[in-house]
Automatic annotation (TrEMBL):
SMART domains, alphabetized: AHS1 (SM00796)
KW Transferase (keyword) present: no
Boundaries of every Carboxyltransferase domain copy: 7-209
Pfam family, one: CT_C_D
Phylogenetic lineage: Bacteria, Pseudomonadati, Pseudomonadota, Gammaproteobacteria, Aeromonadales
One Gene Ontology molecular-function label: hydrolase activity
Signal peptide: none
NCBIfam families listed in its UniProt record: 5-oxoprolinase subunit PxpB
PANTHER family named among the record's database cross-references: 5-OXOPROLINASE SUBUNIT B
The protein's name: Allophanate hydrolase subunit 1
Annotated keywords: ATP-binding, Hydrolase, Nucleotide-binding
InterPro entries reported in the protein's UniProt record: CT_C_D (IPR003833), Cyclophilin-like_dom_sf (IPR029000), PxpB (IPR010016)
């Protein structure tokens, strides 16, 4: 069941407004957020510079040479009075990310086993058995924050981030999951690796995953992972 937003407009400078639709993170927020993004793109047209959706908000940046701050606020207020959520279409395609779950590329699987008391097979079953929603993009280009992770898998971030996390690493932290689009530092718990190219400058929109997408992780063997172009080089701890 959809939840009803209580929108507030917060000034974000002479050329932007932050629309705060909700105060709490919830998968059900996304229908409202994606609908507002769509409506802003339509209503602002060429006056729109950027629109950035996130967990509970939408940042709307406009061209101040074409539209002043007061007019932009008035337009947003009108959109909000008419806003209706995108229907959650359970028949809509789910983006699947193949994952090789293994301790050599997911060194925190053992930590998760100790924390939960569950077997590796059960942990993989839980992580791959849920359809996640993309809440936000950030940290690095193509890095999608997804939720909500099953409660049994909730695990805090590492006390000290790793200086180097390989591209494609599939990870969890708190009640969220993600995959690293490129090699970078990171403090999330690593469970495996995906061969999917998460960020590509030659792809329309660049990021494979977009806010509002439904995503499922699909376990694959090492052989299939490598066939799909994955790098099975073991994780080296520094």
């Amino acid at each position: 069941m959809s939840i009803c937003p209580q929108p507030r407009l917060e000034n974000a400078g002479m050329d932007a407004w932050l629309v705060r639709l909700f105060d709490e993170i919830d998968e059900r927020n996304m229908g409202w957020i994606t609908a507002l993004v769509r409506d802003c793109e339509r209503a602002f047209g060429e006056q729109l510079v950027d629109v950035v959706p996130s967990y509970t908000t939408v940042l709307v940046q406009f061209d101040p040479l074409q539209l002043d701050n007061v007019e932009a606020r008035r337009l947003l207020q009108q959109l909000l009075t008419e806003l209706t959520p995108d229907a959650e279409d359970e028949a809509a395609p789910v983006k699947e990310l193949p994952v090789w779950y293994h301790s050599s590329v997911g060194p925190d699987m053992a930590r998760l086993e100790r924390h939960t008391g569950l077997s590796t097979d059960r942990l993989i079953e839980l992580h791959s058995g849920h359809c996640y929603r993309v809440f936000a993009l950030g940290f690095a280009p193509g890095f999608a924050f997804m939720g909500t992770l099953p409660a049994q898998l909730e695990l805090p971030r590492l006390d000290s981030p790793r200086p180097r996390v390989p591209a494609g690493s599939v990870a969890i932290a708190g009640r969220q999951t993600a995959a690293y689009p490129k090699t970078s530092p990171g403090g999330w718990n690593l469970l495996g690796r995906t061969p999917a190219k998460l960020f590509d400058l030659h792809r329309t929109g660049f990021s494979l995953l977009q806010v509002g997408d439904r995503v499922r992780f699909v376990p694959v063997s090492r052989a299939e992972f490598e066939r799909l172009g994955g790098d099975s080089t073991p994780m080296k701890e520094s």
